[in-house]
UniProtKB/TrEMBL annotation:
Protein name in UniProt: D-alanine--D-alanine ligase
Regions of compositional bias (Polar residues) in chain numbering: 689-700
Gene3D superfamilies per record: ATP-grasp fold, A domain (3.30.1490.20), ATP-grasp fold, B domain (3.30.470.20), S-adenosyl-L-methionine-dependent methyltransferases (2.20.25.110), Vaccinia Virus protein VP39 (3.40.50.150)
Chain intervals for the UniProt region annotation (Disordered): 1-21, 676-700
BP GO terms, sorted: methylation
Xref: InterPro entries: ATP-grasp, ATP_grasp_subdomain_1, Dala_Dala_lig_C, Methyltransf_25, SAM-dependent_MTases_sf
Taxonomic path: Archaea, Methanobacteriati, Methanobacteriota, Stenosarchaea group, Methanomicrobia
Sample GO molecular function, one term: methyltransferase activity
Family designation: Belongs to the D-alanine--D-alanine ligase family.
Amino acid sequence: MTQNNIDSNSRRKRAKGAVQTKTLGPVEDLETHVRSDWWQTLFNSLYLKTDADLLDDIEVTKKEADLVVSILGLNPEDAVLDLCCGQGRHVLELARRGFPNVEGYDRSQYLIRKARTRAQKENLQVRFREGDARKLPYPSDTFSVVTILGNSFGYFDSTLQDRKVLEEVFRVLKPGGRVFIDAVDGDHIRKNFQPRSWEWLDRKYFVCRERALSSDCERLICREVICRIDRGIIADQFYAERLYNRESLFELLTASGFSSPTFHTTFSPVSTGTQDAGMMEKRILLSATVEKAWPSMESSGAESKKPLNVVVVLGDPRKEDQVKPACVFDDDDFETVNRMKTALSEIPSIKFTFLDRHETLFEDLRKKAGKTDLVLNLCDEGFYNDPVKELHVPAMFEQLNIPYTGAGPQCLAYCYDKSLVRGVAREMRIPVAKGVLVTDDSDISRLSLSFPLLVKPNSGDSSFGITQKSIVHSREELLDIMKETREKIGSDKPFLLEEFLPGKDISVGIIGNPPSCTVLPITEEDYSAVPGELPKICGYEAKWLPDSPYWKIKSVPADLPEKTQKEVVRSCLALFTRLGCRDYARFDWRLDAEGRPRLLEVNPNPGWCWDGHLAKMAAYANISYSGMLAAIIGAAKKRYGIGLGGKVVLQTKAGQSTRKSPAECAAEFEEEVEAKSSIEPGNGRKRNVFSSNSETIKVL
């Protein structure tokens, strides 16, 4: 065997698994062939060959470096991290210009090796490291500038993962540091991408490309079939990139903590020999600043010893409450409050004060405002125990400028209107049950839905107005239950009529704020103890009437296909962000006859009691009731940046094993939630998002 054959074989071995060496032929849907982790294998020697006219043109690199230096006003003493640096062309160019504190970081082992080799040949003293951009190995406050160049942003299936990258960038930047992003102009590409093209790479190689928008039009899906004239097809590979525009980039940077996002003149420096610029055709230049304080060792040490002053706001037991069976607080309610106080007392380094007199609530809060670090808002009854006025309570905190847990007034207003939430979900292409809003009995004559139907007040809490009679099979039953319910809720209240779905009744709980949040195990309602002649519905009787057969309903871990789990979790995370939920929320779904999930309701600030749905979900994740409350407080602290020196620890039940921290298992769960397929390529192993015997809390 000749040396040339040996080299050729070794190259083929290195490329094995990175590309598909046999073509699939004509493909109708490119998106179905894109692996969620395509970026782990695509960037190899073929990548440099197919994009050499852009990636290895020194003149193009110089022009891009000129822009970065000019826009940011880089100084030689600035510590610069080039994130997703590829083969290091920008790092090397800056090093040639006398910038000694420049470093490159990329996921591709091949490209990092290439960068190190080039630096060694030019005797340039720069450092290159390999790793995941969502978990940078650098201490906080390390760099003056972080750059993400060459359309290296937007490779993940979810914007949550892109935000995680930006939050890591924020962390490693010094106070006053800047990020600079060179991203594809998504609006331009959507209108102008070439569905098919081909070009010669050199005298032996040519590449054929196919492109199409993803089903949600948010990503451009690309296929490359690379051929060598004496060997035929040598690679058939698929990849995708998210199409951000100025507005979405601005929102993403702002949500990640950056200040003053600024757009600069767009540019398209390409080689004169470029035949197909693809997504490099037109780009967006964007910079933003980090505004944060330098950490102080002395102050953080003192702060960690000082207990946090938390005011807990509750419903008023002195006032009437129409939702409760007897319209007053009873022994069960006081027992619930006592259990909550006991659980809070188990949380270390926090001093709790309780307020429940609504007549003086605003004045009491005003007096304590200067000494209050955080309000734990557990007043889900609403101001004066009026659920319509639930948003009034956080509005007080806003007026007094007091940090608080949970959703703000706007989110509570949105989610109190079930029909409005349905509209938002449909706009986001999240499936909902077929339904219609009815404001008057005359609307029923034009009803086009098929019976049976679920009849429920369009606004309301705690299943008020939803009973076993709410499942109707005729127009007569529909008119009767509407008349009966109006006597309880008022004659002017609209109803939401939805097709009654016969499948599993499931709920998803989230604690935290995406992307750093805990998705609790999905639960389903077990109706096995409910008599067969009764409709399977978790209404008012199940929550408030111990003598009802519905009182025997149990919440158990949901038995769902992995694909359904992922679809539901992704939708919940998207709705959490879109509707402005904060710190914790619960999402109720039901499956149709074919097992397809349909969203029913979104519950910001869901019930916090020890035996509520959220606490049951937490228990299945081995989180104690005290730990659940601590996690909600911790989410708010992190969101506000309160007590950065302290740490809220999820407390596990006594006698059970200690769990991994969220940081330790984040990467694993991100891959599970974001994966498009339930089978990992290469080894055929199934992966479950939620596992009943998992030893980790699933964290996104």
